[in-house]
Structure formats: structure tokens, C-alpha cells
Specification:
four-stranded antiparallel β-sheet; elongated
């Protein structure tokens, strides 16, 4: 299964169980991972998903490997996030 990830998305929130915590905004960081079959997302490199899929296809065909995992990072794609990208896994079994 393929994965879309977002690393260190930052936000400020009033959160906590103690009174003093509820008086000030605190910085939070959220990591998000979404699993989805991205094969249907191909759009000739307009999406990082399509680029990762094509790299995986080339590696499988050219090097005759059994399985490949490709990670494409796109830092700065989403404001207040350290990194966003996709992880594509492909193999001879699909």
C-alpha cells in the first residue's frame, strides 16, 4: 500500500488539563500518514505520486528486482510543515 505523509505540521492551540496550560497557546507538531493505492493518480509527473510510480516502474524493469520502495519528499509544499511526500511500494506481485 502506498503512503502520503506530512511531517511536523505546526499549530498553536490552547490544550491541556491544568489551568496554567489553558491560559497560553502551546506549539504542537502533528505527523500524518495516509495509506492509499495511488496507482490511479498517474498524471505524467504533475503529482509526486506519478513521479514516484514511474521511478518504481523503471527500477523494477531495468534492474529486475523483486520489490522497490520509492520516497519522494516535497519540503515546503504545505505551509507550517517540515516535509510532505509519498512512499510508493511496487513489486512483481503488483
Amino acid at each position: 500500500m502506498d503512503r502520503i505523509f506530512m511531517t511536523a505540521l505546526t499549530a498553536e492551540a490552547i490544550i491541556g488539563i491544568y489551568d496554567w496550560e489553558r491560559e497560553v497557546k502551546q506549539r504542537l507538531e502533528v505527523d500524518l500518514e495516509i495509506w492509499k493505492d495511488l496507482r490511479a493518480e498517474a498524471s505524467r509527473f504533475r503529482l509526486v505520486e506519478a513521479l514516484a510510480g514511474e521511478i518504481a516502474r523503471i527500477v523494477l524493469e531495468e534492474f529486475k528486482v523483486v520489490r522497490v520502495r520509492v520516497t519522494v519528499h516535497k519540503p515546503g509544499a504545505i505551509r507550517h510543515s517540515r516535509d510532505v511526500g509519498v512512499v510508493i511500494e511496487r513489486g512483481l506481485d503488483g
